[in-house]
Amino acid sequence: MADFPASFDDPRITDQFCRHIPGSAGDLVLLGVVHDHPASVARVECVLESIQPSVLAVELPPAALPLYRAYARGGDDSPQFGGEMSAAIRAAGNADVVGIDAPNWSFLRRLVTRLVADRVSPTTARRVVSSVGGATRDALTCRVAATLTHATSMTIDRDDAIEYDCTAADPPADQAAHERSHVSSVQALLQSVDTDGTALAYRDETREHCMIDRLETLPERGDVVAVVGVDHLDAIENGLVDRL
What is the top-level taxon of the source organism (predicted)? Predict the structure, then answer.
């Protein structure tokens, strides 16, 4: 994978969304994605079908994996539900699939330690707890939905897919241009809002540290592809480069 991503002749696979971190035991490829965007779905499918890694790491809590595995099964086209995450699971073939996102005990321990050390205000602490509670409910909802999907003939969709002004039928160059424009717009909006020290910042920065911790251990099992939100890509890459 030395020439990754230049080895792919695809405008959706570029340095903006794909990072390669070589390792002594196994290489790690980070794929940044925009939820449900056709360019992101195509990116994970193309890269994973080409690399066939030993491990696929996805930005999902472990409790959500059974549902996304169910979404990934059956048919020859991209999965109908689950966007780029279920597409990645299907394209990864026999790779071990691991969920690296919160909530989990490591995340909760790290979050509480940081809140105490920073002596955050009660208002911020309550907002953090509320945010974590929402994420926990989402994970449990995925677990229940997976159980129902396995036990019945129904497929339970946990949320509505995001619709964009481009589709999988559009040319790859058009998909790539639309995705870049969307990411630029979102980043400009976030930069205009000061989120430093907010409940959202505490939660997401702690999530990133926990994902870095988990990813650091995986290359021992061979080549790894990790699929994460593009807004986490730089922080995770920088954290891993400092360690690996």
Answer: Archaea
